[in-house]
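We emphasize that the prediction below concerns an isolated chain of 144 residues; any contacts that depend on oligomerization or on bound cofactors are therefore not represented. The input was used exactly as deposited, without trimming of termini.
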Amino acid sequence: MLIFNDNDELLIQQRSASKRLWPLYWSNSCCSHPRGAETLEAATQRRLWEELGMRCSLHFLYKFQYQAQFDATGAENELCSVFIGRSNQNPRINDAEISDWCWIDPEALAAQISGVGNRTFTPWFKLEWERIWRDYRSDVLSLQ
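Result of the prediction step, given as a token string:
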């Protein structure tokens, strides 16, 4: 999930140091992680509340699959569904999931993903952001 505020800044989070894969990497606002028979829509709202203490309308954009190796610790091979939403609430983070967070301007984010600054980003977020800003920018900017 990608949550934007009324200034079109994106909420990004730094993953907790206790995460097995990509600890302390910066990433998208939140991930859905559906359970069993849970709908994707229910999972997105549940995880948005569990991780960020937020509620907002979410809009589905697209799905993508990625595979990435994180050193000898493990790898991921996942199908990700991308949802966007708009909120001006500051999150109330779940410390077990999130170490830090910030709102970031899309141009500053693009520069940081390109290597400017000291943030390191998760592989799925880099793929997600590139496509969002290239193919779905108008959807983001027209969010209500």
